[in-house]
Amino acid sequence: MSIEIKLSRFNRIYRSNEALEGKLIMKLTSSISFQSIRLTVNGTVNLQVRGGSAGVIESFYGVIKPIPIVHKVFEIQSSGKIGPGTTEIPFFVTLKDPKEENREKFYETYHGSNVNIQYLVTVDVVRGYLHKSLSATVEFIIESANDNFPAKPVSPEMVFFYITQDTQKHPLLPEIKAGGFRVTGKICTQCSLLDPIVGELTVEASAVPVQSIDIHILRVESILIGEKIATESSLIQTTQIADGDVCRSTTLPIYVILPRLLTCPTIFAGPFSVEFKVSIVITFQSELSKKHSTYDPKTPRLWLAMESVPLELVRTK
Description:
single chain; mainly beta; 9-stranded mixed beta sheet; 6-stranded mixed beta sheet; 3 helices; 5% helix; 57% strand
């Protein structure tokens, strides 16, 4: 026997002011009796602190108590009997009643490193003490409700940048420092989650050949622990926009598509916050870089030039 939850939308994306619809599909080899069929909707913000971003005492506790967003239990059917074969039981539940005062805002689904916002729907077929209950769980995705969207489309806010040997706060290889380089361009610092990160970049001068130019998207997650704030940055995605030495004074386009579940609208909540950054990383050709083909992209290296700018993400229609 098997039990499965099939939601009405193939992408499983819903908004908090919409109803969650679907059906419970049961495939049985023989008939069973049940006491009740219950559907539970759970939404939580799960927080954890790693050893590198907090003190010894905070790291000992590790996982912080989850923040509840929603917890609702619905009875789909009371006691009864289901025959052999395939049985489909539809359900229709309201996620957020306008008359209710929720303790927490319906944050968008987000799977981060230390912050995880998740919504689950679980169906339990309770069969009594002598029989094991049947259950199935599936995750559904929450996006901001329409009434929270900006009245007008958000135009990308661009910032101009320039990268030289003098703008780097970390040491560089002597040949890179002495020869010099200059990279200029622009990139958006605010954009819709539905749109790509766009911009352009030009290598105006460089004495040392360029090996690669990459755009990193990073998450910056902060968690309040007592009177302290633990903050940690981690890499989400890397997009290479140039491979090998590039022609000088040639404009290169920047076009980066955002990953859905790994990003969300920028959040500033009381117990936690989720922010984002864009980092432009230029790798120069050197013998040292060949020996270190794998490394932490957030850590400055002698053969790298970097520039980071904050990125605000918003949800639009």
